[in-house]
Amino acid sequence: MSTFKTLDDVDVRGKTVLVRGDLNVPVEDGTVSDTTRLDRLAPTIDEIADKGGRVVLLSHFGRPKGVTPEFSLKTIVLPALEEVLERPVAFAADCVGPVAEAAVKALKDGQILLLENVRFHPEEEKNDPAFAKALAALGDIYVNDAFSAAHRAHASTEGITHHLPSYAGRLMQAELEALSAALEAPERPVLAIVGGAKISTKLDLLGNLVAKVDRLVLGGGMANTFLAAQGVNVGKSLCEHDMADAVHSILAKAKAAGCEIVLPVDGVVAREFKADAPHEAVDNAAIPADAMLLDIGPKSVANLKAVLAETKTVVWNGPLGVFEKRPFDAGTVAVARAAADLTQAGKLLTVAGGGDTVAALAHAGVEDRFSYISTAGGAFLEWLEGKDLPGVAALKR
Ligand SMILES: Nc1ncnc2c1ncn2[C@@H]1O[C@H](COP(=O)(O)OP(=O)(O)O)[C@@H](O)[C@H]1O
Ligand SMILES: O=C(OP(=O)(O)O)[C@H](O)COP(=O)(O)O
């Protein structure tokens, strides 16, 4: 199998290096609530800058529809990045065209420039060849250090590699090595926990994941979507009602593969999406039509603790509830701590990842008590399915 080139294979001195990072960090109250993705990207940026390369950073942030100030990388992410790097980072208000070109031209050896959100151009997600070429025109070489976005065949992760010598960054290398070491031959039973808010974009991967794991526990908006597809009235909960067919197809695949799907049996509901909103725990059959499920309930937590006790390997992406708003963090925190305790007792191997998942595990105080924490969520699960991730495959070409 051909493998990719790394920073060991190139002299970056005096070169303009386009570095694709994943600066899609969780934000709470106008600040970055978890800097893990920045911390883990920093060694690649430092190495290139210290060797005299000119670093031009490319990233997406959120899922904007066109240019929206709320998704600018300038306001919240840029200051956090400068703090992590402990060096100044210049900024250009566009990632292609004259604004970007002028900012790149002004860069000196060892300096760093961040370009505005690549998703402000719809051509990014379409992997438009002309847009990929325009990005590539800004640099001499390309380094992909965004493992967590490697499941996307976008212009800044895939298309650009057709135009520039391409290398893997240190985080990309480290993630692939760590995940292979932990999960190449996992001890069974293997349990996957998938929660969170990204539903339709993660449903596809569940269909394959059920063939790889013995049990699949669902929480968050993903669980709501499964419950609704099975006729449970989930009220005003986060749910993609039009995904019922996809859900039934996954349930059929799980059955054929002998994978047990574990859904919540109860939930914590509230009528307002805010911390300390009046709330109650109810069984699935009693979810009020005007309320939202914001966490799994105590019976579901007890179930999951029992399931964990008979599991050898856990892979986890997506919080089980709205962990950012107390007390709706309780389910995620309880399950995370139970998994961490079993890990520390040497009874369980735990691998978790995802921007918000890492923030949730840090909130639970267990980020150092899992076996491995990945910066990636969806990408890590797709890697686990055995898929050749487009962003990684492009580096191997
Ligand atoms: N029941 C729920 N209702 C609404 N949002 C939820 C629910 N459960 C979890 N979430 C939200 O899901 C988000 C994380 O989802 P996602 O982006 O898929 O995870 P990750 O970034 O780890 O891959 C969190 O902001 C959390 O508040
Ligand atoms: O946060 C990310 O993925 P994750 O939610 O699976 O951890 C990546 O930045 C990819 O973002 P996307 O799912 O909008 O392509």
Automatic annotation (TrEMBL):
Superkingdom of origin: Bacteria
Pathway the protein acts in: Carbohydrate degradation; glycolysis; pyruvate from D-glyceraldehyde 3-phosphate: step 2/5
Catalyzed chemical reaction(s): (2R)-3-phosphoglycerate + ATP = (2R)-3-phospho-glyceroyl phosphate + ADP
Binding residues for ATP: 202, 324, 354-357
Keywords of this entry: ATP-binding, Cytoplasm, Glycolysis, Kinase, Nucleotide-binding, Transferase
Enzyme Commission number(s): 2.7.2.3
Main localization, broad class: cytoplasm
Binding sites annotated in the UniProt record for substrate: 22-24, 37, 60-63, 119, 152
An annotated Gene Ontology molecular function: phosphoglycerate kinase activity
InterPro entries tied to this protein: Phosphoglycerate_kinase, Phosphoglycerate_kinase_CS, Phosphoglycerate_kinase_N, Phosphoglycerate_kinase_sf
Any Pfam family matching the protein: PGK
UniProt-listed Gene3D superfamilies: Phosphoglycerate kinase, N-terminal domain (3.40.50.1260)
Compartment(s): Cytoplasm
Similarity comment: Belongs to the phosphoglycerate kinase family.
SUBUNIT field: Monomer.
Protein name as annotated: Phosphoglycerate kinase
Source organism per UniProt: Inquilinus ginsengisoli
